[in-house]
Amino acid sequence: MNANTSRQSPAEGEESAQLFTRTARDLPTGRHQFHRERLMAQIHEARQEERQEERQQERTTAGVPGRIRRLRLPRPAVALPVLAAALAGVVVAGVVRTGSDGVRDSGVATGPALTTTVGVATTKGLPQLLDQISLAAAEDDHPVVKPGQYIYIESKSADTFLKTVDDKTSLASHQLHTRQLWESPDGTKGWLIDPAVNDSPEGETLSLPDEQGNTPKAHLGAPSYDYLAKLTTDPDELLVKIYKETEGQGNTPDQQAFTTIGDLLTESYPPAELYSALFKAAAKIPGVVVVNDAVDAAGRHGVAVARLDETSGQREEWIFDTKTHVFLGERSVQVKRLSGTDALIKPGTVTYTSAILNRAIVDGIKQAPSQAG
Known about the structure:
- This protein is α+β, with helices and mostly antiparallel strands.
- About 20% of the residues lie in helices and about 25% in strands.
- The protein has 8 helices and 14 strands.
- Strands 1, 4, 5, 6, 7, 8, 9, 10, 11, 12, 13 and 14 form a 12-stranded antiparallel β-sheet that branches.
- Helix 4 packs antiparallel against helix 8.
């Protein structure tokens, strides 16, 4: 989207998407521009009154000329606290911009759909695996983030989407690209460099307050490190809190709970004790399975803890190193055949993939770990 493009009306911004759970709109240009691609799947203030109507809209498959339709919100869906004010009631489908061919697209090059072999899912060995992952997480050295420091997370990601041009719909993908995030422990300062959502290669600020002077309160859908550090580490209490705060979100309560935990794994840096408790909580969610071979966005093979969303037909997979049980990344794979336009999303389509390359504590915003003294 060009800098001089005005904000779309709600009618223009709506995408007919079977796999979305909310209405999507472009945001105004400016410092919140990166929010257009992701991030409000978990906002707990979401509009309860409109949910039934929007889910009915999700069942429609009418194409919109010159638009792209995401198969899902590009992950990570964890929002910084700024989103609660900037996007109250709005979930974002994706960065869209108009090229010379009239096709609305994002800022990274497109290619063919991402595909993989659908791995076999089983419950065999799941409790033991999650126990091992939980123990490894508890033993991992998660340094305490001090005031004035920043959490640095570097990752790679790519996604597949439905693209409709002149009433013709096809699958395409955004190329694998690097994403860098800095966030202060209280969540009020930060920086994002992501070519999929930033017009500038220098990135954009995430610092608060926003243009309206709001400093939103952190919550599970928009956590800060300080917020996470205060959460209970009792797995049962933690899971109760997750179900309660995400009530009404997602396709089912169990799937949303699984997704919420997965989001906390990708772009936050929970204290070790909480990190361990998240896996113990995940073990209590019905429908969780093991996939013995999964590949992250960096090409690393591992074992996955996964759950199938029966509504979308996509299986969300958290990928771990088979020996160290360190979290590598995640991906979503289509495993069920759909109907209508969505029949293009064949089993084996990778709708989203990511890999965590580096997670560290640094002393300055936009400082890389290698620059730390």
